[in-house]
Design brief:
The protein is α/β, with parallel strands linked by helices. The chain has 2 domains: 237 residues, Rossmann fold (3-Layer(aba) Sandwich); 84 residues, Alpha-Beta Complex (UDP-galactose 4-epimerase, domain 1). The strands form 4 sheets. It has a 9-stranded mixed sheet with strand order 3-4-5-2-1-6-7-9-14. Strands 8-17-12-15 form a 4-stranded mixed sheet. A hairpin with a 2-residue loop joins strand 3 and strand 4. The longest helix is centred in the middle third of the chain and has 21 residues. The model has no long low-confidence stretch (mean pLDDT 93).
Length: 351
């Protein structure tokens, strides 16, 4: 019988792209849990196979019934499976084996407006992650992926004066931690610590990743890259940018992110974390320039200095990942942004 994997937050941007990759490259079954609270689309909108049937609160897709979706808070699911580890089979009449891989994307997410504007609700990630690790240490799935974040890095290394390429070794639980970025950074840093405890004391195979600024064609407009692309497609002039636009990030396409996630799962088991980025700092002014060049016009830039912008410069040092695992991103900024722009143009024409 094929394996069954659990993906929390599997309808979100990274989660659904991972699910689509697993369905394409394996014969395994995927159980997705997502409460859709962030406005993320259910599988009807992004899965290429139709709804096959419904069993109680499960929606099952495709003739081979390999994608199963349950809408709900992941913590409620964990509560049920802690009470009865075999409740999936007992409640729904399946004959599934134990979960093999667990990919944990359930989180309170959002752009800078969410991180700065509602930091206490973002702190609920602490609850979600603690309950996950409490469960896995008892259930003991084959492997676990914990997505941390580049927000876990010390913010004093990300200023205009002191911007440096961030190395995995810049976070040490036996030494320097520094101050991460708001409650989101603190929660992810704590999640990494729990991952290392799960690996060291409970024998759980855990891989952690620190993605930088992931983007892609199907990302929603609350994130900067698709929002900028949409405004370029509409030929906005003057072109508004949050802050001065000189603040920079390390942009990495979602296809490269998924490649790196799967590589990490195959090679890391001790709870340690790796960067996922391009290793390049690109300002938002440069991103606007790329999109406007594709769109074929040259607008006036209008800075919005009252908008939240976060740290000034955040980018990765990818030398550890490249040297140890031989991994590099394949999709350039120009190619990736063109894909996003073409999707934005399709949406504009559709309207």
């Amino acid at each position: 019988m094929s394996k069954i994997h659990l993906v929390s937050g599997g309808c979100g941007f990274v989660g659904r792209n991972l699910v689509k990759r697993l369905l394409k490259t394996t014969q395994d079954t995927i159980l997705v849990i997502d409460d859709l609270s962030a406005g993320t689309p259910m599988p009807d909108e992004w899965h290429n196979e139709p709804l096959q049937k419904e069993i109680q609160d499960l929606r099952i897709y495709g003739p081979n019934e390999r994608l199963i979706f349950r809408k709900g808070d992941f913590r409620d699911f964990l509560y049920e499976i802690r009470k009865e580890p075999d409740f999936i089979n007992k409640r729904y009449g399946f004959n599934f084996p134990r979960f093999s891989d667990v990919y944990h994307f359930a989180a309170i997410v959002g752009g800078r407006a969410k991180i700065d504007g509602d930091p206490m609700v973002v702190a609920l990630d602490l609850s979600i992650d603690a309950e996950l690790f409490y469960w896995v240490c008892n259930y003991k799935p084959a492997r676990v992926l914990y997505p941390s974040s580049s927000a876990a890095y010390p913010i004093d290394q990300q200023t205009e004066q002191d911007a440096v390429a961030l190395k995995e070794s810049d976070i040490r639980f036996d030494g320097r931690l520094g101050q991460p970025d708001m409650t989101y950074g603190w929660s992810k840093l704590t999640g990494e610590y729990l991952a290392q405890i799960a690996a060291k004391y409970y024998g759980i195979s855990v891989a952690c990743i620190r993605p930088f600024s992931g983007y892609g064609e199907d990302q929603d407009l609350t994130y900067p890259i698709p929002a900028i692309a949409a405004r370029a497609a509409a030929k906005e002039n003057p072109f508004e940018v949050w802050g001065s636009g000189k603040q920079g990030r390390d942009f990495v396409h979602i296809d490269d992110c998924i490649d790196a996630i799967l590589m990490a799962m195959d090679n890391i088991s001790d709870g340690s974390a790796i960067n996922i980025g391009s290793g390049k700092l690109t300002s938002f002014l440069e991103i606007i320039e790329v999109f406007c060049k594709i769109a074929g016009y040259s607008p006036t830039i209008k800075p919005l200095l009252d908008k939240p912008v976060g740290v000034h410069s955040r980018y990765s040092d990818m030398s550890y990942v490249e040297n140890k695992f031989g991994w590099k991103p394949k999709i350039s900024i120009e190619e990736g942004m063109r894909r996003v722009y073409e999707k934005a143009l399709q949406r504009k024409k559709g309207n």
